[in-house]
Specification:
Growth Hormone, Chain: A, mainly alpha, 0% strand, membrane
Length: 406
């Protein structure tokens, strides 16, 4: 009798390869998805569009991703996580390479939507793949490491695009990112170990789809985590969408290459997303989720100041808080889902990127009409709603160590 797969243990070759492969997928995904974010002011001037219109290049990509995560998860349930993630990253890279050649703003939006839909196959499956292949005892820490890797991917794309765009325009900036994403995609395909914890799901009719979805939608704790994803990610992407417009205007007058350096604040998220995993084991997931949300709001309040160094300090605090909260919520989703783990993870990602799309776009109208302070107040209110949902619906106390898979 074959023993059930217990997962790769901490420090093993398989463990390291899973995390390295997911790090490559994170670079390929998040470098492309947000490469235009630091270039929105340049694009706005070049294409003669408003800040809210320019932000649609981010929103259509994240909405495409949100719409696609569930279909990707159902296909992956039948043919495997690694195969579908590989297909997704290849398609996304192809669309990403076409984006700089878009002949019009409308064509650009279509290509970005397709790119986002292709990218949906990565975050939709990454946590499910990780949970199946990593020992349950170390899955939480591995999830934190994966989220930390995604912050580096997003940071890399923005830092590369900004200086290239200053020299050669936003189209060349995005092309440079897409070429590097192609290399990261190849890294994922080479590094991902053969899956050993995956069990194919048989049957694929509409009834079977509902049977895997409904338990997640009836679980109030999972719904609370989906609310965290929608509200907190909406607030987060709004800050990064529009802070560049604020800092390129008087009295700051920062160039695009300097605005790109704002994304160095992501390094705070790289640290916090890993740090909260250990703190959650001591103080409980809900406590750390609420603490991280509080740090977000505090950082947002600091950005209301006038001096640039204080604004940057607030951005660092805000970013650390967000990625701490996201690391807790995304890892908790996999732990709470006893069946349909890929669907639970996909619903989290759907909520996450729907928040990015809807709130990230709508906040632009507030920013254009009444300015940064009013927009920050709205975003703080959304974070408060997330905290209320967490207190009302999520369990307190320290998490127990999951039992081995059977």
């Amino acid at each position: 009798m074959v023993d059930p797969w217990a997962g790769h243990g901490l420090g093993s070759t398989g463990y390291r390869r899973v995390l390295a492969a997911l790090a490559c997928s994170g670079v390929a995904t998040f470098a492309q998805l947000y490469s235009l974010q630091g270039l929105l002011p340049i694009m706005s001037r070049d294409l003669a569009i408003t800040a809210a219109q320019a932000s649609r290049t981010i929103s259509v990509a994240t909405m495409g991703l949100a719409v696609a995560v569930l279909p990707w998860s159902f296909v992956a349930d039948r043919v495997g996580r690694v195969r579908i993630m590989g297909l997704a990253v290849i398609l996304a890279t192809v669309f990403g390479l076409l984006v700089p050649a878009a002949p019009s703003f409308e064509a650009l939006l279509v290509l970005r939507a397709l790119e986002g839909a292709a990218l949906g196959g990565i975050p939709a499956l990454a946590i499910a793949y990780l949970t199946e292949e990593i020992s349950p005892r170390h899955a939480g820490a591995a999830a934190g490491a994966y989220v930390a890797g995604t912050t580096l991917g997003g940071l890399f794309g923005r830092l590369l695009a900004g200086p290239v765009a200053d020299l050669a325009g936003w189209r060349m900036g995005t092309l440079a990112v897409s070429v590097c994403a192609a290399a990261a995609a190849a890294g994922f395909l080479l590094l991902a170990p053969r899956p050993r914890g995956f069990v194919p799901v048989e049957g694929g009719g509409f009834g079977a789809v509902l049977a895997r979805l409904l338990p997640q939608l009836r679980n109030k704790q999972l719904l609370a985590l989906y609310a965290q994803a929608f509200l907190l990610m909406g607030a987060f992407v709004s800050v990064y969408n529009y802070l560049g417009f604020r800092l390129e205007a008087p009295p700051y007058l920062l160039p695009a290459s300097a605005v790109a350096l704002l994304f160095l604040a992501y390094l705070a998220g790289t640290v916090s997303s890993r740090a909260v995993a250990g703190l959650a084991a001591r103080f409980g997931r809900r406590s750390m989720l609420l603490a991280s949300t509080g740090v977000m709001v505090a950082g947002l309040a600091v950005t209301l100041a006038g001096p640039l160094p204080i604004i940057l300090a607030g951005l660092v605090l805000f970013t650390a808080g967000f990625f701490g909260a996201h690391s807790i919520a995304s890892g908790w989703t996999g732990a709470l889902a006893t069946t349909g783990r890929a669907q639970a993870s996909s619903l989290y990602n759907l909520s996450y990127y729907a928040g990015s799309s809807v709130v990230g776009w709508a906040a632009g109208f507030v920013f254009q009409a009444v300015g940064w302070h009013a927009m920050a107040a709205v975003l703080a209110f959304l974070a408060l709603l997330a905290a209320v949902a967490a207190v009302a619906l999520l369990p307190s106390g320290r998490p127990s160590v999951p039992a081995p898979r059977r």
